[in-house]
Write a structure and sequence with these properties.
The structure is a single chain. By secondary structure, the protein is α/β, with parallel strands linked by helices. The protein has one domain: TIM Barrel (Alpha-Beta Barrel), CATH 3.20.20.140. Helix 6 links the parallel strand 11 and strand 12. The protein is built from 18 helices and 17 strands. Helix content is 40%, strand content 17%. The strands form 3 sheets. Strands 1, 2, 3, 4, 5, 15, 16 and 17 form an 8-stranded mixed sheet that branches.
């Protein structure tokens, strides 16, 4: 009897235990949560599991989770984006980029130019279920015009020729079939080719990234695209002789001397950039900016204002460089020494203009996105995004606005604001745990304690260890 009764109670206890919820997921407790929509929330517990944020609350009791991370004294922000990267620009960097990005809290990247035969294998590898890599969105090649700047001669081959509107339509239809997430229009396209690209992309539901084509003015091209890179060619549309400069540019674009695309583009920039800035007209510029209110600007200040704060003068540059591929490291160090000895005054002056214009754009409500053009021109994947945030704050954005440029704005570009960009229930579990408050000093975004990517938490040392194995 006692044996039977004992067995009954054991069975009952096992049934009760089976009905209890098993601990799942990970909780970061007692942490200060910061994002660009909700602001600052103190003493929060954030629970995530299976690439989804399950709870964000300030209740005192710890939830029954499989893993718990003590966030006392720490700050939790959404995973960061680098909104302008080139994964296949330099083969020396391609393999190490995913680990580099994650080690700096970059959990999503937008690749803005690469040939498809190189891009597709990289994207497929990064999107594998078992991959430890940022989310990746890509455009395929730069869609250039009759003359191609990045043609594989003096520059890496990442652009393709589109001499006619029919060429452009066919190219974009093919890219859509190959799975691109958006398209990138480059500088040498004609207005007719530009219009065909815009029309085709809209028909196919592809967001449009662009430089301002040299054949067009910013107020003509800007309203038709979703983002513009580098601020280049906007200066012409802010000058008191914009019409005259444009007419001269159209004549030179006929290219009677048959210059290669890269030389033709560079000659036009050199001829007109600084004269346009010297002829700045505030009223005319504000008219141009008014046409860009719905077009995200990705100024890449760490590139275009490089001379104002060169990375090799930063206190943490030596440590950051030690993590890039060894065969690049020495070349960069030698080039940095040479550049430091003879900086370009034109580059410095354009950098000051870019900082001014970015601040003015932000004050007028134009959306700003944070991108770096990595790995071009001393841009260390991951590290350079934090430099970009510092530049943006120096240009006039608040630290919270700078965070918005690397979280909310990229999500909005891809209409993913309901899935990404903030720390809310139901959002993707991409998070960065910091040891210091980024709102007190935007440089504190580099004080990384751990990173959550696709619902998996890694402390920074673990991510750096993955990099060391590359």
């Amino acid at each position: 009897m006692k044996t039977a009764l004992g067995m009954f109670f054991l069975l009952l206890l096992s049934l009760v235990a089976a009905c209890q919820p098993r601990p799942v997921g990970t909780a970061i407790t007692n942490v200060t949560v910061i994002d660009a929509v909700n602001g600052v929330r103190q003493n929060q517990t954030v629970v995530f599991d299976g690439d989804e944020i399950l709870a964000v609350n300030s209740k005192g009791t710890e939830p029954a989770t499989e893993h718990t991370i003590d966030g006392t004294g720490k700050f939790l922000i959404p995973g960061l984006w680098d909104f302008h990267v080139h994964l296949t620009y330099d083969d020396n960097f391609t393999d190490s980029m995913p680990a580099l990005f994650l080690s700096y809290g970059i959990t999503s990247v937008r690749d803005t130019g690469g040939l498809m035969h190189k891009m597709v294998p990289v994207v497929e590898k990064m999107r594998r279920e078992d991959a430890v890599a940022p989310r990746v969105f890509f455009s395929g090649p730069l869609l250039d015009g009759n003359f191609v700047v990045y043609d594989g001669e003096s520059r890496p081959e990442i652009g393709i020729r589109n001499a006619t509107p029919d060429d452009a339509r066919a190219a974009i239809e093919k890219l859509k079939a190959q799975g691109v997430d958006f398209i990138k229009i480059y500088e040498m396209v004609s207005p007719a080719v530009f219009d065909a690209m815009v029309e085709t992309a809209n028909e196919l539901g592809l967001p449009i990234d662009s430089h301002v084509p040299l054949s067009m003015r910013a107020r003509m091209a800007g309203p038709s695209v979703d983002s513009i890179e580098h601020l280049r060619n906007i200066e012409m549309d802010c000058s008191n002789n914009a019409t005259e400069l444009h007419e001269t540019r159209l004549e030179l674009l006929k290219n009677p001397d048959g210059l290669p695309g890269v030389e033709l583009r560079s000659s036009l920039h050199s001829l007109q950039r600084m004269p346009a800035i010297d002829a700045y007209d505030e009223e005319l510029c504000d008219q141009t900016l008014a046409t860009l209110r719905a077009t995200m600007q990705v100024p890449t200040l760490r590139l275009v204002a490089f001379n104002l704060a060169p990375p090799f003068r930063r206190h943490d540059w030596k440590d950051a460089v030690s993590r890039i591929p060894p065969n690049v490291r020495e070349d960069w160090r030698a080039s940095a020494t040479e550049l430091a000895e003879s900086p370009s005054q034109e580059f410095t002056d354009f950098g000051k203009w870019a900082m001014f214009l970015t601040g003015r754009m932000n004050s007028q409500g134009i959306p700003i996105g944070a991108g770096t053009d990595t790995p071009i021109f001393f841009s260390i994947p991951g590290y350079s995004l934090h430099s970009e945030l510092e530049y943006l704050v120096s240009a006039g954005l608040s630290p919270l606005e700078a965070l918005k440029s690397a979280t909310v704005r990229p999500a909005e570009y891809f209409s993913l604001q309901d899935e990404m960009g903030t720390i809310d229930v139901g959002k993707k579990a991409d998070l960065v745990l910091l040891d210091a408050n980024p709102l007190e000093d935007i440089a504190n975004t580099k004080s990384i304690s751990g990173v959550v990517t696709k619902g998996v938490y890694y402390d920074r040392e673990a991510l750096l260890a993955r990099l060391d194995t590359k």
